[in-house]
Amino acid sequence: MDKISQARRSWNLSRIRSQDTKPEMVVRSFLHRNGLRFRIHVKTLPGHPDIVLPKYKTVIEVRGIDISRVTEFAMPSTDQDSWEKKLQKNVERDKRERAELEKQGWKVIVIWEYELKEATTKLSSILKEIKISE
C-alpha cells in the first residue's frame, strides 16, 4: 500500500522533468563549448531526440537511470507489476525509435546520467566519435 495519496503521487510525478534536465544541460554545454552546434527535441524525428547534430547526422539521447544496469535503483514496493510493465514498454519504445532513426541514416549515441560522473572522459570520447564520422 502506498504511503501517500494517489493525487499526491500524481502531483509528485508531474514535477519530474523530461526535457532540459541537468544531465542534458551538461552535455549541451560541453558540445557548445567544443564548437558543435545542434538542435534540441526535434519533433520531426522519431522519439524527439534530446540533441540533434544535423551536420554529423548524429543524435544524442541523454537518459536517466538504466534499470537493468544501475544497482542503486530500488523498484517501488507498491504496484511492482505495473512498474515492470511500464519499464518494459519504455525499453521497447526506445529500441523502436533507435531502429527507426538508424533506418533513416542517423547515428544514435545514448548517454546515461550515471556516466556523466566522469563527464570529461565520456564526452571527449563522444566528441572524437562524432568528428571521426565527419
Description:
The protein has helices spanning 6-14, 22-33, 80-103, 119-132; strands at 39-40, 51-53, 58-63, 107-112. It is α+β, with helices and mostly antiparallel strands and 134 residues long. The protein has a four-stranded mixed β-sheet with strand order 1-2-3-4, sandwiched between helices. Helix 3 (80-103) links the parallel strand 3 (58-63) and strand 4.
| Coarse morphology | globular
Strand order within the widest beta sheet: 1-2-3-4
* Helical coverage, percent range: 40-55%
Contiguous low-pLDDT stretches (5 residues minimum) are none
Radius of gyration: 17 Å
**What pattern of helices and strands is seen along the backbone?**
HHEEEHEH
Mean pLDDT value? 83
Largest beta-sheet details:
4 strands, mixed
Q: Figure out the total of helices.
A: 4
Estimated share of beta-strand residues: 5-15%
Write the layout of secondary structure elements.
Layout: H1 6-14, H2 22-33, E1 39-40, E2 51-53, E3 58-63, H3 80-103, E4 107-112, H4 119-132
Parallel strand pairs: 3-4
Antiparallel strand pairs: 1-2, 2-3
Q: Keywords for this structure?
A:
134 residues; 13% strand; alpha+beta; four-stranded mixed sheet; globular
Short description:
This protein has 134 residues and is an alpha+beta fold. It contains four helices and four strands.
